[in-house]
Amino acid sequence: MAPETIWCNKKGYWFEGYWLEGYWLFTIRNGVNPLTSNLQTSDLLTLNLLTIKIEIMKRLYKILMALFAIVLAFSCTDSAPASDKTVDAAAGPGQSAVQDDQSQKNVLQIAIGSPNHKTLVAAVQAAGLVDALANAGPFTVFAPTDEAFAKLPKETLDNLMKPENKNALSDILEYHVYVGVIKTDLMRDGQKLNQVNLKNVEVSNKDGKILLNGSVNILASVPASNGIVHVVDGVLLPPE
Amino acid sequence: MKKILLFTGALLLVVAALYQCKTKGAATASATDAAEKAYVAPGTYDEFYNFVSGGFNGNISVYGLPSGRLLRIIPAFSVFPENGYGYSEETKAMLNTSYGWLPWDDQHHISISETDGLQDARWLFGNANNTPRIARVDLSTFRTVEILEIPNAGGNHSSPFITENTEYVVAGTRFSIPMEEKDVAIDSYKENFKGTLSFVSVDPQSGRMKLAFQVLMPGMDFDLARGGRGPSKDWMFFSCYNSEQANTLLEVNASQNDKDFITAINWRKAEEYMKAGKGRRSTSRYAHNTYSEETHSATTTWETEVLTLDPTELKDFVYLMPCPKSPHGCDVDPTGKYIAASGKLAAVIPVFSFDKMLKAIEDRAFDGEYNGLPVLKYDAVLHGEVQKPGLGPLHTEFDANGNAYTSMFVSSEIVKWNVESLEVLDRVPTYYSIGHLCVPGGDTKKPWGKYVIAYNKITKDRFLPTGPELTQSAQLYDISGDKMKLILDFPTIGEPHYANAVPADMIKDKSVKIYKLEENQHPYVAKGEKETKVTRQGNQVHVYMTAIRSHLTPDNIEGVKLGDDVYFHVTNLEQDWDIPHGFTIRGSKTSEILVMPGETQTLYWKAEQLGVVPFYCTDFCSALHQEMQGYIRVSPAGSNVPLKYGTGDDMVQ
Predict the structure, then answer these.
(1) Omega of the bond leading into B554 within 30 degrees of 0 (cis)
(2) Which of A229, B79, B545, B558 is deepest in the core (most CB within 10 A)?
(3) Interface contact B5-A94, CB threshold 8 A
(4) pLDDT recorded at residue B466
(5) Residue B24 burial by CB count (10 A; 0-12/13-18/19+): exposed, middle or buried?
(6) Chain B partners of A167 at a C-beta cutoff of 8 Å?
């Protein structure tokens, strides 16, 4: 089973939990996690198998933390230092976890590296799409900024982030992805882009002014190793 | 309580330690269980032969399953210097085409011959995707024995899929082209371009192929195909995309229509038209290369006849089923009742019902026409859609228990679903970006099941890195339980596309071990050392040479003149399993030849420099292999050095 990451913040410490072969495995990371800071602690903690309660963890975490450091330091002589060992916080179990500092950044890494796409990245994570976006693609990703997400009613976004609404969230995110590379100079007036969720995004191009679905602007375009990211100022909502 | 906490803490630490030591977490299989399942003890055999297309290496590779051990590469469309395929005088003709002699192709799919929808494993068919051809491999010798060129085609991707009794092997063009190689404007695609779906008949005894007829289709791209079975055995199904008929930037322009098509062809009906003398006969020159195990030589026959059936004129044998978004795989389930199509850009897998299709045809439930061909109503032919199966469905294979396994390129996983209920049952990640997949016998009436193998397109960090160019990555999963379990990673060569597997017992006992020397009818054979000789015909020198442990006869040759064309016809006199001899000569501009016991192969060499030139056996055949050598003397063109040859003291003049 793929490890699913959960996070919780207690007393300034970030716990990162992985579900691994029947166990919750915790590592503790200092500082804030910029990627999931929108997530609510209450949404995240459902520790079942060992019925570990967060209150218990509170009392134990300092001891565990110390022991952890020792174990990590001594258990893997051939691996990188434990503090660097925790892979990219956004990485999934598959291709997104590939360690590669030579290649051009892929669409996922571009989104992760952007200070204006925290919500998008959190959503991609919650929808379990990180590995897909690290795929060969190629993809055209319309990446709404945090401001664009902020235009949505807060309730809508909070609801979408709930695990039970994973399908609805995926649907919206897949509506932001086209399989193929569409640079702006390929965008024609009246063009339909059939997105991953099978719904069309309508492109209008009036004298070089490009609008998606009649209202969304492209603010910037960033080429990626596996496609292109168009930063957009609105969230595209799939037609019913 | 504290005890529990401490125990819990300790447990976490252990788990943490284990986890941290693995670089890929859940991507690694549970070691002991997997090792047991994939383990083939030294000296024991694998359970299956896994025949894997070689993609851009143009050949077919054979692995053992479950070990993943590479057993053999069967050269088909690409030269293979390792054994001289395409280099020896005998095998060169296998690569003749109407475009000339071609050293390479792109080999995508294979089919194992069937009787009554079950593997009979007599032959294996492979397609050449670039210069359209079909190869037939004899599974008793693992050699390519026939290659038929497909005329009027622009890339033979939708091939070599077979009918239930191997009556036909099909070749659907990937690229539509103007017929008769006409010189027309590229943007006249809609008007001038056509696609052909070729049906090649297979002789039930000899396996010999013949282009029976071509179905002329509107210009589109034809992707994959499958023969029906059981109730649908008279039908062949082809997926097609680019129904937009775009001729440029297909990345955008071929994704405009919401639906493309699955083309259903009633080949039995087409056959009736053919037998009734219907259709249009035309002429086209195409190569038909066959290899004889008697003469150990290939010959090219130039075929000329083509019969074209136009479904807009000859009605009622071609129907189009709308299919979402550029379908790729088009796979018929073991019952023959369902066709799973994979819209590679779609987020659903539509599954068509053969019964419903027949009913829709009967009821004339058409949704208009496409270029004169009837389009059936989607809802009328649909069994149902697998919802949210994953992203980028490509291909589907089946087990014997009513389950389907679909590869998902974009979400990098195999998804198991039930064919009747369309319910997703399980999913496993692959590493990474799976293309084709194979369940042994997964394209037959009775799949052998047991495993599913993922042939991935992306390797990245899966094995030790070897610079920018990496091996391809395959994963073997145990499917004997409800959940798929990863048990082995193994590297594969070339670029595997479709593959299939055959139980070892169906092949191993009929595997040829030697060629019988007395049956060798090669025109330059020397069936014993007494038959060896060197003859001259003008500038051509023919050396009738034998090889046996541990000498070549003759091993001294004189009287060859500068500019002579020398042919070394080497017969391996051994009649002992796995004692090949090889042969080469210094400055050889071709590959070595590797000669199996009882076989004759010929290496051509031009004498371009004066002197005495060494030759030797290239295969370590025996304790005195290093002694297995000789010399050929090259004298000036006008020299009077007589032709003289021999081994030991008996030089013949």
Answers:
(1) yes
(2) B545
(3) no
(4) 97
(5) middle
(6) 388
* Total domains present in chain B: 2
Q: Is B483 on the interface with A (CB under 8 A)?
A: no
Q: Tell me the mean pLDDT in the region A175-201.
A: 92
Domain contains B32: no
Structural domain span for residue A36 = 5-85
Average pLDDT, chain B: 94
Instruction: State residue B498 phi and psi, 5-degree precision.
Output: -70, 150
Summarize the confidence of residues B451-465 as an average pLDDT: 97
The size of the A-B interface in CB pairs under 8 A is 133
Gap from B425 CA to chain A (nearest CA, Å): 14
- pLDDT tens per residue, range B589-606: 999 999 999 999 999 999
Within this chain, do residues B570 and B427 fall inside the same structural domain, yes or no?
no
Does one domain contain both B110 and B154?
Answer: yes
Structural element, H or E, at residue B7: helix B2-21
A200-223 pLDDT per residue, tens: 999 999 999 999 999 999 999 999
With CB atoms and an 8 Å threshold, state whether B347 touches A100. no
Same domain flag for B461 and B610 = no
ipTM exceeds 0.90, yes or no = no
Q: Which ranges of B234-345 would DSSP assign to H, the alpha helix?
A: 250-253, 267-275
Identify whether A239 is part of a domain. no
Structure confidence at residue B4 (pLDDT): 53
Structural domain boundaries, residue B626: 517-646
Residue that finishes a domain, picked among A34, A63, A85:
A85
Q: Are residues A43 and A126 in the same domain?
A: no
The answer on A153 and A120 residing in a single domain is yes
The full DSSP string for A107-127 is HHHHHHH-TT-HHHHHHHHHT
